[in-house]
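Sample pair:
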Amino acid sequence: MSNQVPTIKTRKIAIISAEIGWGSGFKAAEMGCQLLFEAGIADRLQATVTRITSIPSMLDGEITSEETETAIMDHARRVSDAVLDAIQNGMFPVIIGGDHTSALGFHTGLARAHGKTGIIWIDTHSDLNTLETSPSGNIHGMVMAGLLGKGSKKMVATTAACQTKEEHVAMVGIRSIDEGEQKWLDEGTINYMTMDAVNDRGLSACLANAVNTANQAEAGFGLTIDLDAIDPSQAPFVATPVDGGLDADELANVLSALPNKDRLLGMEVVEFTPRDDKDAAIACDLIASLVAAI
């Protein structure tokens, strides 16, 4: 039997488009996946496609905060089902989106398929807020908290299948942390590496360290990339851009040499929030390069 690590040339990729913007409050996040498909993302990755649309759509008008949370959790469950189905059919799930509430479904789906999984979280934000600590109230900033079992009753019920432990979570590129999130990071066991750490130690060393942390989980690990981790000079099309981020080309190069790829169970590249149609071609190239590197 060959020990060759699967690549884009040998993996059967299943794109799962998480077409939702309720978590960030931006309609463009819901509509971005359609633009990526028009730009050719599926052909670039030689992938099958499952589209998880938002019900209701933000285009249909405003809804209450309670209805918003219900819509997000329903969407996350459908993403989770699609991840499980892809894995059961021998595919490698790749989530594109869409606001970062996709993570609720992505990592829960991996857990349903494989068991105890770790998480590598490449993001500007730790997303460890809850309704009590969030300055904005936007649910896309609460998803890691939900995956670790904290949050509203609906959130915790949605992520109940996720078995990820704090000590198997590694964050890379964090550079915008709210007060409540910092308290959690200071008191907990999450391995978090800020952009200062990346600049000091190098991205390759930080990601190798992240793999070492996430790979301690019994089943392997999932990879999350929020596009706002990349410097806005290269990825301006996100909901919450913050200066001083990762270089996109360096990230792709480091991912291509990522250790223990045989333990990588799936990935997501999310928060594409286009300002105009021209953003799609640039984002398509960027997302395809990151997925192809794995």
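The domain at 13-292 is CATH 3.40.800.10 (Arginase; Chain A).
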